[in-house]
Amino acid sequence: MSSAVDQQDIKREKILEAAYQRFLHYGYSKTTMNEIAGDLSLSKALLYYYFPDKSQLYIAVMRKLAGEYIQNLENELRQFDNLKEAFAAQVDIQHNFIVKNYNFFDFFRVNEQNLPDTIWEIIAEIRRAELVLLSAAIRVEENKGHIKPVENPEQIVDLLIDALHGVRVSAVSHKKVMFPQKEHLEEIHTKRLLLLNIFIKGLMY
Amino acid sequence: MSSAVDQQDIKREKILEAAYQRFLHYGYSKTTMNEIAGDLSLSKALLYYYFPDKSQLYIAVMRKLAGEYIQNLENELRQFDNLKEAFAAQVDIQHNFIVKNYNFFDFFRVNEQNLPDTIWEIIAEIRRAELVLLSAAIRVEENKGHIKPVENPEQIVDLLIDALHGVRVSAVSHKKVMFPQKEHLEEIHTKRLLLLNIFIKGLMY
DNA sequence: ATTTGATAATTTTGTTTAAATAGTCAGTTT
DNA sequence: AAACTGACTATTTAAACAAAATTATCAAAT
Lengths: 205, 205
Known about the structure:
DNA-binding (chains A, B); 205 residues; Homeodomain-like_sf (chains A, B); homodimer; mainly alpha; HTH_TetR (chains A, B); HTH tetR-type domain-containing protein (chains A, B); DNA-binding; HTH-type_Tx_Regulator (chains A, B); 9 helices
């Protein structure tokens, strides 16, 4: 037996899925509420029954993706053989995430630095999760005596994430865009793994 | 005795200096050619006798600054005690350069990704100089046996510069600006030195 | 409680106009 | 001839407005 609330959640999910597909293929600004509604054979008004506005719909999709991403990260980092492997897992998972959802982030390219605060919060949440999981990984390795004691693992992970981010950024600077071109993603990934190698070695005895 | 060409060069220099002061205090877009001419008690038309247009004037100033920056770097990297010191010198010199000329780069904030190609060339030139000088430093330390042999020093330096750049970038992301706020420069500098520490250690035996 | 058609409100896009500023040039001064 | 200028033109920027597209609302229907 399915309650009314269940039904509502199912419909919400259906809308999220349809919206995700539209955003993924056409980007935020070239997706209209009419089209999303059309895909589901619903009236546009109903979308507003389930979501306050278009940006909130986009954000809801993004939140879902972020949740899946973090879940994925948690699963992979549950066990690992050494620190490098743990960090490499993060780099890989992020890479796959970006590749898969590349066009979804069209919103970022268009809206650039004026992203709504909520989106920055989601990004911050992702980063916080990465920070927690990776610094936990450092602690584990530290306790095993594989690396020398680290006074502040969070600071180290934060720095590493910044550094990895730099590899992404310099791949786009002096281009007209802020978000990397799809063709550069592989190159970025390779450089990141190299950086990781050196950085990890720098943490060793 | 001063030739006509000397005189022309002197006047060119005077214009560059006046333009630099205006750009430094008011930024590119809030500086008019009339004002620069006024500062020198010259007609605006004369500026166009010496420089083809406003952007070329700005670029000429920038080129001069870049030359001084690179010269500075060469002097400092002529001798050093260890690799960390050499890299730290680069970070420090760049830091001081940005702090000193902070407002001059207003053009970057405004124009963002649509900077004229020539400016990207100057930036590339600076980066090339950094690359050459720092990879030479690596070679020196390698020959002294202070670090383990490096197959491709340029690649390593390139990566490090990207990573250091990431520290700058993350200090501005989710802010409305692309160029860091002046208040963040010290924080960026500190984080960079920390990153440098780890990175260098990663290159050691 | 869920859904919609019709309608209102807002955002985006394009156009016009005026003001500010960049850029030119014929002619003057050194 | 090289250095320079006043007066002019051309371009860019900003503001104001209108039309079109799209978002968002709501009273009524299921």
